[in-house]
Design brief:
Ribonuclease, manganese, globular, alpha/beta, 5-stranded mixed β-sheet, Nucleotidyltransferase, domain 5, 219 residues, 9 helices, 15% strand, RNase_HII
């Protein structure tokens, strides 16, 4: 399989019109259990000139054993990063899209707390739908790009930062709910996970509003 290397071509275009790019990517949208996480990574001219860290990819393309190392390189490269969260309970209450919007806004608020001038930036959002602006004004324009997490190094950085953090959360939850094997499937619809749901029902960390019994096996 040919692995596409992320580049900074699109970020350079955006930085010609904005002083900062804040790339955002979600992790956990399709899981049956656990929170959804939105990673945010900030780039300016300094990071662009430094070039893409070695091994940086969309988190789905990085072997699990290497993700923490790549995450550390990504965090060391970007000028700032943050993760916003939305719990399974919030997802049940307001739906996944609004929950993702809330999580993204929390990530941006975290960046503001770190001193990032979010209102001067442009937000690069992986996907084909702006789920941030309909939730609340983020204070910066949002541009969406399909496969940004694969093609744009800033979004790859946001992806790996969020992925490692969410995986750690699910691994930490495993000892209290071992039947679901979240340390392996991270809350996604593996056969073992689905069998445990049939045998034990749902935990407080499951997205109870979802049609979990009909969910496709993803692991």
């Amino acid at each position: 399989m040919t692995v596409i290397e992320p580049t900074l071509v699109f970020e350079r275009e955006l930085l010609a019109r904005h002083p900062l790019v804040i790339a955002c990517d979600e992790v956990g949208r399709g899981a049956l259990a656990g929170p959804v996480a939105i990673g945010a990574a900030v780039l300016g001219e300094v990071e662009i000139e430094a070039g893409v860290p070695n091994g940086l990819r969309d988190s789905k393309l990085v072997a699990e054993r290497r993700r923490a190392d790549v995450r550390d390189r990504a965090r060391g490269w970007v000028s700032a990063s943050a993760i916003g969260w939305s719990s399974a309970a919030e997802i049940d209450e307001i739906g996944i899209m609004r929950a993702m919007g809330n999580a993204a806004l929390r990530a941006l608020a975290d960046l503001r707390g770190q001193g990032v001038e979010v209102d001067d930036a442009i937000v690069l959002l992986d996907g084909n739908h702006d789920y941030i602006t309909p939730t609340a004004d983020p204070g910066a324009p949002v541009i969406v790009r399909v496969k940004a997490d694969r093609d744009c190094a800033s979004a790859s950085a946001a992806s790996i930062i969020a992925k490692v953090a969410r995986d750690e959360v699910m691994t930490e939850l495993h000892p209290t709910h071992p039947a679901y094997e979240w340390h392996r499937n991270k809350g996604y619809a593996s056969e073992v996970h689905r069998a445990a749901i049939r045998a034990h029902g749902l935990s407080a960390h499951h997205r109870a509003s979802w049609a979990i019994a009909d969910a496709p096996t993803l692991w």
